[in-house]
Amino acid sequence: MKERSSNVRWWFAIVFFVIGIVAYMDRSNISVIAPDMMRDLHLDKGQFGLLASFFAAGYALMQVPSGYLAEKFGPRKMLTVALVWWSAFTILTGIVKNHGLMYTVRFLFGVGEAPMYPSNAVFNSYWFAKDEKGRASSMLLAGSYFGPVIAPVITVSIVSAFGWHSVFYIFGGVGILLALLWVIIAKDLPEQHKMVNEAEKRFIQANRDIVATEKSHAPWSAFFKYFSFYAIAGQYFVVQFIIALFLIWLPTYFTEQYHISLKDSAWLSSPPWLVMFFLILTGGTVSDALLRMGKSRFVARGLIAIAGFVVFAVSLFLAIKTDNLYANVAWISTCLGGIGVTMGMSWAAATDLGRNFAGSVSGWMNLWGNIGAMLSPFLAGKLADIIGWTNTLECMIIPVIFAIILWFFVKPDQPLLIGKNDLKKVK
């Protein structure tokens, strides 16, 4: 009788979903408590925006090193260290009062979160089949943007009961508990996990998109010869620039543009992230289905990513043309859903291009994405003070046009590594 395959890899996908929730709750709760925090610490919008910029600076600078370290030491060790590190600095955010120290804490918080996505990319390359990576990549991303769905409600409740400082203490403690769970259950390879039966192991080994399992160093000199290596980074700069703007400023935008309370803005900030959550999962599922139908990776990844950008641009235009609060929320929800689809395809394409070195390629992509995220909160805050929120949001359509053009050069059907001969040069 044929052995029925276990599905341990999909349980790990759920664990990554939870990790994504915790990570982005840690990152986004600061936007919900912005008015209280700015008042108590005497920060203006530009100074508050710099908190997010310092986080993004630390996060961006560690992307490429994190990809290398995840490939060298494995995602189990790297993610354990990351969870403990960023949770500790989440707690410290609620303790420090000095502006300079606060910027340092948020920078080091960013350093701690940096290994999360590159580690996930390495894990997915070894644990999932070629036509499962879209869904696998989307689980962490979906968790990341389900975090902001529930963060406003939970954060406001904690603030009402215990004050804004307690938000960081509670979320930091949850992250440390999650680190303990991960280090107990995780393994770098399915071959090492006792709960993976032979049927699942054979399936993964026969269908995963890697060249070899031997350890080797990423051939950066070869990567830099491909324009697709630059194109995927450039378009992701735009993706994260836009997401960071909404992540940090959306509640403030609602309170200032429509003169509503912080509590109401918290509730209205959740639907956009909920739509993004659903469309990230949908995009990954559709992308993998297209691959199973025999479509090219450009169709399955690239065209879906371009469609996401188009949906964002059209919906944003409609959002800023309406004076009705609820219509605005609906169109912004569609905006973030579109950009979420593009983000999911970016990570799937990075693993397609990188294969064995998905950690390095995704780290490179996320480096540039988070340079965008580093610049966005500060620039958006300053622009909003000068030209208003409507004109600030309208400006976002321009970089999206350039990002759409770049996707025609990403070429996920042409991996940066072709075969074992590529590895011999870099061992």
From TrEMBL:
Its main location: membrane. The keyword Calcium does not apply. It is a multi-pass membrane protein. GO terms for molecular function: transmembrane transporter activity. Gene3D superfamilies: MFS general substrate transporter like domains (1.20.1250.20). The chain crosses the membrane at residues 6-25, 46-66, 78-96, 140-162, 168-185, 227-250, 270-291, 298-320, 326-349, 361-380, 386-410. One of its GO terms (cellular component) is plasma membrane. It is found in: Cell membrane. Keywords: Membrane, Transmembrane, Transmembrane helix, Transport. Pfam families: MFS_1. Residues 12-415 form the Major facilitator superfamily (MFS) profile domain. Signal peptide: none annotated. This is MFS transporter.
